[in-house]
Amino acid sequence: MIVFCNIDGVLNRLGLENRGEGTIDEDLVANLNKLASQSYRSPVEIVIHSSWDLSLDRIVTLFVKKGFTFPVTITDRTEVAGGIGVRQWLTQHKRIGDRFLILDDDVTGYDELWCRLIACDGRRGLTGAAFKEAQEVYYRHKIMTENERNSAVTHLVDYCRWLAKNDSLPEEERQQRIGFHLDIVQRCLTAPNFLEAACLKEPPK
């Protein structure tokens, strides 16, 4: 999982005195620690996308000073901040299709990436609803890559074809199951940017 992490409004609180380049809040870094600590389930790779005019090494040093305990996970930074920087980085590193989420307080310019964006309140940073949403996406992997989506759709369509030929089920139940799975197929196909829009649950009984 790639985490594109902005700093202002995410790891510090805008609108307070003495905000600016070089300022990070320890309690917000602690929340980033909680995300990175789940690397045993899905290795996390943090890519900084910020307008700060600091080298990556200096940013990593500052993170550690403020309590970040997973410095090796900070692997790179984008050339520019925002959606443009994220798109460029994914393209240049040939990582399009990988799982990723974006932490930012500015939601403009993300367009088709909006469903991967965790929008933080710049006055609060990575806390509250934004932090819970980030945990939800990160822990439960609600993002599907294109290959995963295509594989899921193929499997579901094959299952529907098998159901159509299965005479052991009553006709009404068979049609109900086919309709249930085709509905999931449709929602997977129309999900923006391969975000999982349907929970693959057991068919209704």
Counting DSSP H or I runs of 4 or more residues, the number of helices is: 6
In whole angstroms, the N-to-C terminal distance is 36 Å
Overall strand count: 5
Shape: elongated
Main sheet summary: 5 strands, parallel
Which spans have pLDDT < 50 for at least 5 consecutive residues?
A: 192-205
Radius of gyration: 21 Å
What does this molecule look like?
It is a single chain. This protein is of the alpha/beta class and 205 residues long. Helices cover 41% and strands 10% of the residues. It contains six helices and five strands, in the order βαβαβαββααα. The chain has a five-stranded parallel β-sheet with strand order 3-2-1-4-5, with helices on both faces. α5 packs antiparallel against α6 (171-190). It is elongated. The two termini are 36 Å apart. Residues 192-205 have low confidence and may be disordered.
Describe the secondary structure blueprint for this structure.
Layout: E1 2-5, H1 26-36, E2 45-48, H2 56-65, E3 74-77, H3 82-92, E4 100-104, E5 117-119, H4 128-140, H5 146-165, H6 171-190
Parallel strand pairs: 1-2, 1-4, 2-3, 4-5
Helix pairs in contact: 5-6
